[in-house]
Amino acid sequence: MVRRNFVKTLPALAVSAAFALTSFGVRAAETIKVGVLHSLSGTMAISETALKETVLMAIDEINAKGGVLGRKLEPVVVDPASNWPLFAEKARQLLSKDKVAVTFGCWTSVSRKSVLPVYKELNGLLFYPVQYEGEELERNVFYTGAAPNQQAIPAVEYLMSKDGGEARRFVLLGTDYVYPRTTNKILRAFLKSKGVAEADIMEEYTPFGHSDYQTIIAKIKKFAGEGKKTAVVSTINGDSNVPFYKELGNAGLKATDVPVVAFSVGEEELRGVDTKPLVGHLASWNYFMSLKNPENEKFTKLYKSWAVKQKLPNAAKVVTNDPMEATYVGIYMWKQAVEKAKSTDVDKVIAAMGGQTFKAPSGFTIKMDEKNHHLHKPVFIGEIKADGQFNVVWKTPGPVKAAPWSPYIPGNDTKKGEPEGK
Amino acid sequence: MRKFGLLLGGWLFYVSSLCAAIDPALLAPLAVDDSEKRIAAIAALAQAAPEAALPVLTALADESLAVAGERIVRLDGERVFDAASNREIAPPPAEREPISINNRVRRELAAALAALRLFSSEREVRWQAVQEVAASADAKMLPLLDKALAGETDPAIRNRLRLAHAQASLGSDDPAIRLGAVVALGESSDPKVRQLLLPLTEKRTETWVEADSAVRAAARTSLRAIEQRLAWADNLTRAFTGLSLGSILLLAALGLAITYGVMGVINMAHGELLMVGAYAAWATQSVFRAHLPDLLDWYLLAAIPTGFLAAALVGVLMERVVIRHLYGRPLETLLATWGISLFLMQVARTLFGAQNVEVANPVWMAGGIEVVPNLLLPWNRIMIIAFSIAVLTAVWAMLNLSRLGMFVRAVTQNRAMAGCVGVPTGRVDTLAFGLGAGIAGLGGVALSQIANVGPDMGQGYIVDSFMVVVLGGVGQLAGAVWAALGLGVFTKFLEGWTGAVVAKIIVLVLIIIFIQKRPQGLFALKGRFVDA
């Protein structure tokens, strides 16, 4: 009796086991792996953690709507810990071990430069969501942040305009690595072309994680007291911004006297700072959380509910910023390109990316350039408000095409506006 | 205090102008998104109805002016006032679009507000206003300054007003007035005044900017006086920043001076003890924020004992569990404490997250005292200097006046002998290590006020701390004090010359050279105590 029963049930068991196995197998093959390569610890964690959350949120949103090509996305999150060589190691792990179809990652240019050889060698695909210095055009990378002509140059032009305070003397202040150095080289050439004398430009650098800004603030004060109207252009990156702005507020350097325009400070970086003494200081970006349009409303609401759901620290007060928007736009454009190419194959996706458009939270329909792997983006200049948000005081009428090879660097006029290679 | 004064002044004006009304046509351009029109409207308002305009312009500066339908309203917390009639609107209109302004408008607005406030009945408000006016005084403001001077009785304010008056009359056609102005400005110590006087001594295309030679000579004399004062303030600033950095280095290193300097334990987890103190400050702040929001400004006072106890507890545990088994084996101690350092960092990461946590400065630590226009001493720096002096005094008293201190010194000087006469060396070690760790915790509380608080923060200070202790001479508190101050002032003067990046390199190279020439540090203990 027992045996008969057992014999009877055996085939059923086998079938169900086989079914479970195959369904598991099919499921595993069905997901598309997406790499997330952002520092979750160290000096850059202040900026990059939110980008990881954005990628996860977008993946969640896409999966809820059925995924890409009918397949779910599966995030693979690694932490390169603000350690540049570790970025390359983690990138290699993502590409050769996890076999991700695409990676969203990096903030600092030095981390991007560190992973580039890996992506070229293994023919991977990287979406880089942060404004940067240009001077690069790689086939394996799509740059969804701003090139210098989409951020730095308009900001300085604004400072020189009547509304911006007609600054004629500039302090170029940055963290000591490739992005600030190159940007300041471009800005120096640009300022010279506008008739600003060499003596009216001061350049200063600090190491990563620098926390004592007393001397630099005193120097800026002295420099500003020596001549024409002065403005500060800050390319300080990472958590050094907190002591910098704290010191700026305590030293009583007001925006009406010496405005500071920052290229790496957004809503997220200002969360740890008392912004009341900073009212009027500026930032130049392609997106602000305070922009009013339906897409942005949707985007901010989405992120807020995501933060609450994930129980992020301070979830009630989370903010969105430009690189988060760029990350979000990037992941959707990649999705569209995959759907157009009907494959996640890197070469096919790269070919399908050019000309993709997306209605972005910045309020404009932005386009991936057909050739140069950069987005056409609008530029906004905002003043810090007492609540840590930005009040847009200037904007371009529409999206601007990126010029990764800045005309202000000698020798760039002969460079091609599209990546070399296949 | 300053804010309170402004508020009070604004309120007084508000009360006196309750019945006054403004023509809505004058207000309308404020809502137009055009800086030119706004600036013109601000000037027109201030001219037409000075008293009634003050609350409106103050609200514009605070970004609490809004457009509600056709009219412009002033927001005051939950209440809404019509800007023109200054009457409360009940119920408040639902649709309100705040008017935001840019720096250019803000600058003009500040000048207009300062001009209105010059006639306030509050001394504090007038004093504030005269500083603002001095920043932008020009010929247009002469009648206003004349009027203010006529009515002003406070000598300090009169003095500033006279300077502003002189500044405004620099452009006069009468050489005698110009001469008087230039001479009067010699009393200033404002870099802006220097900027104004400088052109008077220069030639532009073969002709002097200033035609009168007597005025030129006076300008030169005045400039010299101003520049002297500026240079003096500059050096003072540098010395102060050096002192401030020194006090921070001292707070970071003082705990190590006891554990390494006095007890000879190479504690690689010292930076993490600082971190424990800083996180204790953050935790105290969180507790206050959640349960005692009224006392939030004073959380720091409670954070001081909390930080000390938390770090001391970790220190005692470390000593009891690990370090006591490794006395006399420096290499193993080094490795073990390094392991503890990694362990503590990971614990912090797991408990509080890898991101930095926000520790806010209490209100009483924000801002600073302005000694002269280009010398401003921030309160948080002053507090930290005072705190480091207090901690230093306490440690010194502990080591030299208390029984525990005597035991610690005895064990340091001759462990075997101290044991023989009945000093419980084991317990003394634990307590001394706990003391050192607790002091590191205090350093962490102080650091939380100026630096970022995160799991990795200790790494940034461990090198500096060892630098201070080794440079000062192992086994010495006085050495650590001098080394910290010396390093602080030296680094700051060097930064002024070379920039932060090169200064850091130079300091490290110089320390290597120094240690090679003088391995015992600045101060070496003399005597027969060595028992290593």
What attributes characterize this protein structure?
heterodimer; A: 422 residues; alpha/beta; Rossmann fold; seven-stranded mixed beta sheet; five-stranded parallel beta sheet; 11 helices; 15 strands; B: 532 residues; mainly alpha; two-stranded antiparallel sheet; 21 helices; 5% strand; globular; disordered N terminus; disordered C terminus
Topology overview:
The complex is a heterodimer of chains A (422) and B (532).
Chain A (H helix, E strand, L loop, with lengths): L1 H29 L1 E6 L7 H20 L8 E6 L5 H14 L4 E4 L3 H13 L4 E3 L12 E3 L8 H9 L8 E7 L2 H16 L7 E6 L7 H11 L5 E6 L5 H10 L9 E3 L19 E4 L8 H17 L11 H20 L4 H8 L3 E3 L5 E4 L6 E2 L3 E5 L5 E6 L27
Parallel strand pairs in A: 1-2, 1-3, 3-4, 4-5, 6-7, 6-8, 8-9, 9-10
Antiparallel strand pairs in A: 10-14, 11-12, 12-13, 14-15
Helix pairs in contact in A: 2-10, 3-4, 10-11
Chain B lengths: L1 H15 L7 H4 L7 H14 L1 H12 L3 E4 L2 E6 L2 E4 L14 E2 L4 H15 L5 H14 L5 H10 L3 H14 L6 H11 L5 H7 L5 E2 L2 E2 L4 H50 L7 H22 L7 H23 L8 H23 L15 E5 L2 E4 H23 L1 H11 L1 H6 L4 H23 L11 H14 L4 H22 L1 H18 L15
Antiparallel strand pairs in B: 1-2, 1-4, 2-3, 5-6, 7-8
Helix pairs in contact in B: 1-4, 3-4, 3-5, 4-5, 5-6, 6-8, 7-8, 8-9, 9-11, 10-11, 11-15, 11-18, 11-19, 11-20, 12-13, 12-14, 12-18, 12-19, 13-18, 15-16, 15-18, 16-18, 19-20, 20-21
How many strands in all of chain B?
8
If you average the pLDDT of chain A, what whole number results? 89
Amino-to-carboxy terminus distance of chain B: 58 Å
What is the CA-atom radius of gyration of chain B, in angstroms? 31 Å
Question: What share of residues of chain B is helical?
Answer: 55-70%
Please describe the biggest sheet of chain B, giving its number of strands, its sense, and whether it closes into a barrel: 4 strands, antiparallel
Q: How does CATH name the architecture of the domain at 149-288 in chain A?
A: 3-Layer(aba) Sandwich
Radius of gyration of chain A: 24 Å
Largest interface: A-B, 56 and 55 residues
Q: Would you tell me the structural class of the helices and strands of chain A?
A: alpha/beta
Mean of pLDDT of chain B: 83
